[in-house]
């Protein structure tokens, strides 16, 4: 893991300061972020795989404004927040708000959202059936076992009529909150990265879209999907609370939220993920 380092404030030239003051109103309405008089270097934690292609473009966009990004890749969801909290990262980009809220509750992290990236509607995948109606009694369905994604998965099963959750159940629902299971489905809790890879041994599985891609699952094998409208599971860039108003954070966000990065995002995810800003 990377070593901690001190982060100093930026030193602007007199011309840069005057220019920034006169253009402040323009930046508020989406004009390009200001360039730094001296390059600023940061480390951003992302998930290995498709995100590396997208962040390659983000890195190029940031460099135009004097922000140097080094991406640090991870292979599971448990490490990037811990690394950010310890100061081994300056930012990360991999999670949605329910996941972060649960992580903060468990670990006391001082991490906040600063800019949305994309949303990947979670889906019900199977290689054995053509529709939800074909799923038989006693079927084994895999779901992610981390609290936020398990609740998300169970809501998909509920929306398809396979189970019913107790009234008033929040977004962190677990199998203990299932009040009705007419087909006597066995819900198997697995690591989020394992569900898709275990699909051959399951009747069906709720798989996050990014893991579905990594597992070689295709949209044709998705027989149900969560609604996109008002989706609370938009992913975002996160930083330590103490840095949320830093100029480099504004530049980092604007380096992601632009048409150049969106074009790469659409190319990489082919419609399975959607820009969320």
Describe this structure in words.
- It holds the Pfam family Lipoprotein_9.
- Its main location: membrane.
- InterPro entries: Lipoprotein_NlpA (IPR004872), TAT_signal (IPR006311).
- The chain is 32% helix and 23% strand.
- It is an alpha/beta fold.
- The protein has two domains: 14-120 and 232-275, D-Maltodextrin-Binding Protein, domain 2, CATH 3.40.190.10; 123-225, Periplasmic binding protein-like II (D-Maltodextrin-Binding Protein, domain 2, 3-Layer(aba) Sandwich).
- The strands form four sheets. Strands 2-1-3-13-4 form a five-stranded mixed beta sheet, with helices on both faces. It has a five-stranded mixed beta sheet with strand order 10-7-11-6-12.
- Strand 1 (40-47), helix 3 and strand 2 form a beta-alpha-beta unit.
- The two termini are 31 Å apart.
- The relative contact order is 0.19.
- Mean pLDDT is 87; it is low at 1-31.
Specify the CATH class of the largest domain.
Alpha Beta
In CATH, the topology of the largest domain is named D-Maltodextrin-Binding Protein, domain 2
Provide mean pLDDT, rounded.
87
Q: Name the shape in a single word.
A: globular
Percentage of residues in DSSP E strands: 15-25%
Q: State the helical fraction.
A: 25-40%
CATH superfamily of the largest domain: Periplasmic binding protein-like II
* Number of DSSP strand runs: 14
CATH hierarchy: architecture of the largest domain: 3-Layer(aba) Sandwich
- Biggest β-sheet, characterized? 5 strands, mixed
Give me the secondary-structure category. Answer: alpha/beta
Q: Work out the helix count.
A: 10
Helix-strand topology string: HHEHEHEHEEEEHEEEHEHEEHHE
Roughly how many Å apart are the termini? 31 Å
How is the largest sheet built, in terms of strand order?
A: 2-1-3-13-4
CA gyration radius, whole angstroms: 21 Å
Unreliable runs: 1-31
**Total discrete domains:** 2
Quaternary state reads single chain
């Amino acid at each position: 893991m990377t070593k901690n380092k001190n982060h100093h404030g930026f030193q602007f030239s007199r011309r840069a300061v005057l220019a920034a003051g006169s253009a402040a109103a323009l930046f508020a309405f989406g004009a390009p972020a200001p360039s730094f008089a001296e390059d600023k270097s940061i480390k951003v934690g992302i998930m290995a795989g498709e995100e590396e292609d997208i962040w390659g473009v983000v890195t190029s966009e940031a460099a135009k404004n004097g922000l140097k990004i080094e991406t640090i890749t991870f292979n599971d969801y448990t490490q990037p927040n811990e690394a950010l909290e310890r100061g081994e990262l300056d930012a990360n980009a991999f999670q949605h708000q329910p996941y972060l809220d649960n992580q903060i509750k468990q670990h006391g992290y001082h991490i906040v959202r600063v800019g949305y990236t994309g949303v990947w509607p979670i889906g019900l995948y199977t290689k054995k059936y053509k529709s939800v109606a074909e799923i038989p009694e006693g079927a084994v369905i895999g779901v992610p076992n981390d609290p936020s994604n398990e609740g998300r998965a169970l809501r998909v099963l509920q929306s398809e009529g396979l189970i019913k959750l107790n009234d008033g159940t929040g977004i962190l629902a677990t199998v203990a909150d299932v009040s009705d299971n007419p087909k006597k489905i066995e819900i198997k809790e697995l690591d989020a990265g394992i569900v898709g890879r275990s699909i051959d041994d399951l009747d069906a599985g709720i798989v996050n879209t990014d893991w579905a891609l990594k597992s070689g699952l295709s949209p044709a094998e998705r027989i149900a999907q969560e609604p996109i409208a008002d989706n609370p599971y938009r992913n975002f860039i996160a930083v330590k609370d103490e840095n949320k108003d830093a100029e480099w954070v504004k530049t980092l966000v604007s380096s992601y939220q632009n048409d150049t990065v969106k074009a790469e995002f659409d190319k990489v995810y082919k419609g399975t993920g959607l820009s969320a800003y």
